[in-house]
TrEMBL record:
It comes from the Archaea. PROSITE patterns: HTH_ARSR_2 (PS50987). Residues 24-59 form the HTH arsR-type domain. It comes from Candidatus Methanobinarius endosymbioticus. One of its GO terms (molecular function) is DNA-binding transcription factor activity. This is HTH arsR-type domain-containing protein.
Length: 59
């Protein structure tokens, strides 16, 4: 595979500023990551899916 690099050397300060304003705090990324970890476990997903259909269980 050939070395593929961008030959454009300009920096779009306006784009960098726009993107920087949209970046959220690290805690948000941590929380989202933890949510995906929760759904990454097969048995946990089965339990979560079963809970709404069971009215007997207390949550």
């Amino acid at each position: 595979m050939a070395n593929q690099t961008c030959d454009i050397k300009s920096i779009r300060e306006d784009l960098i500023e726009d993107i920087s304003e949209k970046v959220v705090e690290d805690e948000v990324y941590t929380n989202i990551s933890n949510l995906f970890k929760l759904f990454g476990d097969y048995n946990r997903v089965r339990i979560i899916c079963a809970l709404p259909s069971s009215r007997i269980l207390c949550m």
